[in-house]
Amino acid sequence: MSEEKVFFDNQQGERLAGILHHPQSGNARGAVILCHGMESSKESEKLVFLGHALAQRDMLALRFDFACAGESSGKFENITYSGEVEDLETAVTFIRARHEGKLAILGSSMGGTVALLFAAYHPDIAAIVTVAAPVHPERFASRLLTPEQIQQWSDSGHLFYHGQRLNVSLLHDLEQINVPDAAKKISCPVLILHGDRDDVVPVEEAQELHRYIPGAKKLSILQGGDHRLSDPLLMNRAVGEAIEWLCEYAG
Predict the structure, then answer these.
(1) Which end of the chain is more exposed for a tag (fewer CB within 10 A), N or C?
(2) From residue 136, how far is each of 142, 202, 210 by CA, in Å?
């Protein structure tokens, strides 16, 4: 196996950074793009492990930083779901130039929602895996903020979340996207992984997502799992299920 540092530009001309995991055989059975969550990066322990594990199974794997995260260009305050969907499209184009076979996507948290939004309009995606993905990101504001704080966000043009500035462009973006509608359009097999003690994204959203997916699907509820799957045993189980799903449908 080998790792390659790669860069590619999104539609706004921002430079995105990634790590490409090449299989030791040199002949990839399939390819997988790994998408991190909000406030995370391609250096997520989960994504690093997945990159190595997939390469060991003769899969080409790309983990990359969305714009406004990690080593990529942009500021965190400008993050939006729609922007990350465009970044994912750029990553897919990059991988397609390297690999002509099947391509799957795994996304964690916000990255999982981005994968769903993308796959709804790209039937050539072979498989999706989501980990703790929000189905109702538009509830982000009402779950964490008072109506007065939301109004202040709208009026002032920004707020501070976990000490970091978020522009009102995210609030406007959340009002435009519709994950349930997107999920109903997805044609590829989808594995949904979610902890039942997730206090960031309620497990009911995973159950709802499972109902929307029209084709092959599997819902795996991880008993005792929090949003980050901080229990190593649960993390190992989730990663193992994800790898099997990706290799079965994209390998």
Answers:
(1) N
(2) 11, 10, 14
